[in-house]
Amino acid sequence: MGETKYIFVTGGVASSLGKGIISSSIGKLLQARGYKVTIQKFDPYINIDPGTLNPYEHGECYVTVDGHEADLDLGHYERFLGIQTTKANNITTGRIYKSVIDKERRGDYLGKTIQVIPHITDEIKRNVKLLGNKYKFDFVITEIGGTVGDIESLPYLESIRQLKWELGRDALCVHLTYVPYLAAAGELKTKPTQHSVKELQSAGIQPDVLVLRTEYELSTNLRKKVALFCNVDENAVVQSIDAPTIYEVPILMQAQKLDETILKKMGLPVGDTPGLGPWRAFLERRHKAEDTEPLHIALVGKYDLQDAYKSIREALSQAGTYNDRKVSVDFVNSEKLTEENIAEALEGMAGVLIGPGFGERGIAGKFVAIKYARTHDIPTFGICLGMQCIAIEFARNVLGYADADSREMNEKTPHNVIDIMEEQKSITNMGGTMRLGAYECILHKGSKAYEAYGTEHIQERHRHRYEFNNQYKAEYEAAGMKCTGINPESDLVEIVEIPKLKWYIGTQFHPEYSSTVLKPHPLFVAFIKASIESFEEKEKAKK
After folding, report:
1. Where in the chain is the domain with CATH 3.40.50.880?
2. Is 384 a catalytic residue?
3. How far is CA 432 from the centre of its chain?
């Protein structure tokens, strides 16, 4: 195709409008036309990465295969496009400034005064073009975090202005805004959109395409009005109406010819409209699954916030679709769980997922939930800290070490069944110092994990500092908890399971990161399948 084309996605009026979903949808539609596409996220905060951010601040921290802690939108990019992102796909203001300051300290600028323009903006531009230059993508879609008008977004907008000027038809701006409905007046209002576009124009950027987020259908006249007042072609004003699922959005965008408009504006041939067969087949299966009786899965954790477990929720939902069943993920706050209320809290739950996390808060409740699920043979899936809790609970209640613990929770525990890795002991920095990214794992043939994957060698992503203590391995195995996944290089335990239970597995890694729309994760699919079978068995027994 020649030169890489750059699409910038900005947002206005309010945050959380779904820039990540629109970026992913545009990427999906262009990918379906045979183009090589990637998406990157530029975040205006000064943290180097989201790794040290509380999930209440910024939702979950996503991990790329090369071990970068990234924004949760990268999860959407991977789930929609089936691609693997890397460190280069997520840049923060912190990283931009750190890079510029490091260069200044080394003397790379030859004594020049370092300024936002040109030094910061040049560094942003270099990062925008990095993926295109290195991997020769046809399209690089760049999502700019935050909202137009935020003071921290200004260097990014200036960089986009310069790139649009330099690249001509090879750069395009898609601006996502909100059209609110005023119930008292019974009207949809376009003024916030007009103001948002004015704000963008004052930064020197004329949007090429407007995507209007709305809860109500927008009339042709309203779209014409927006086009006229915002200097945008009528066919380049697209509505993004609330949909039953985010996976409908590419179909809705294609119906309004968003991909065609982009190709025409960038001087590329339009060609035939892709059928999106596998995507539509997934949606059809999902719609049918939505009509079934919901299968309730308890997500036991301490962050009462949807975005804190975004990838897990999506992986469970996808696994539900591929088992032709609607999954209802019911959050169970581990801080509130006790021996007295656990039976009530897990009443009607077909399966229990023990969520990941850091720190001691909410741990006691996780132990209560794990013990209940284990002793009542409810299908159970522990992820990362969830797996570590499974190991600790087993040590306390089966091996008889009442004081067993993780060094993370209790430095002085005499039975440190979960311990810190040797190479981690001298590290005091919090950010990016864990076992991060994809690592090999070899599965034991005949195990439930092997059965799910159907292969012996797997590779999964990690984000943790503490590990299963191999000194206790023989005791665990003798008592019925098997270590069925092992890292071949370090001999570290990656998976534990209790074979005599219906489905009881803990993984040290995060399988949710690699579950996509067209390739659901085998462990989640197996977990949901086991939960359905177990629940139906129990219902039959009641009758």
Report:
1. 292-419+467-481+495-542
2. yes
3. 18
Beta-sheet pairing, 187-188 with 181-182: antiparallel
Name the class of domain 292-419+467-481+495-542. Answer: alpha beta
SS3 annotation, 56-106: HHHCCCEECCCCCEECCHHHHHHHHHCCCCCHHHEEEHHHHHHHHHHHHHH
Please enumerate in sequence order all residues whose Cβ is within 8 A of that of 185, keeping only pairs 6 or more positions apart, or say none: none
5-275 homologous superfamily: P-loop containing nucleotide triphosphate hydrolases (3.40.50.300)
- 195 catalytically annotated: no
Check residue 1 and give its pLDDT.
60
Annotated binding residue 492: no
Whether residue 16 is annotated as binding a ligand: the answer is yes
pTM: 0.91
Residue 56 assigned to a binding site: yes
Consult the annotation and say whether 505 binds a ligand.
Answer: no
Going 493 to 78 to 217 to 290, the CA torsion angle's sign is negative
CA distances in angstroms from 126 to 35, 70, 100, 112, 270, listed in the order given: 22, 19, 12, 19, 30
H or E element that contains 4: none
Q: Which residue of the set 384, 389, 441, 483 is catalytic?
A: 384
Q: How far is CA 476 from CA 377, 398, 409, in A?
A: 18, 9, 21
Secondary element (H or E) of residue 118: none
pLDDT tens-digit profile of 482-539? 999 999 998 999 999 999 999 999 999 999 999 999 999 999 999 999 999 999 998 8
Residue with tokens 């699409």: 7
The annotation status of 357 as a binding-site residue, yes or no, is yes
State the helix-helix crossing angle for 310-322 and 73-81, rounded to 10 degrees.
20
The fraction of the chain above a pLDDT of 70, given in percent, is 96
User: How big, in percent rounded to 5, are the helix, strand and coil portions of the chain?
Assistant: 45, 20, 35
Residues 9 and 156: beta-carbon distance below 8 Å: no
Active site residue 61: no
Which residues in the chain are classed under CATH 3.40.50.300? 5-275
pLDDT-derived band at 27 (thresholds 50, 70, 90) equals very high
> How many C-beta atoms surround the C-beta of residue 279 within 10 A?
20
Known binding residue 161? Answer is no
Residue type, 157: L
Q: What burial class does residue 168 get, using C-beta atoms within 10 Å of its C-beta: 0-12 exposed, 13-18 middle, 19+ buried?
A: exposed
Phi-psi category of 515—alpha, beta or left, where left has phi over 0 and alpha has psi -120 to 50? beta
Lookup: tokens for 72: 């949760």
DSSP bridge partners of 406: 418
Alpha-carbon distance of 212 to 207, in angstroms, equals 13
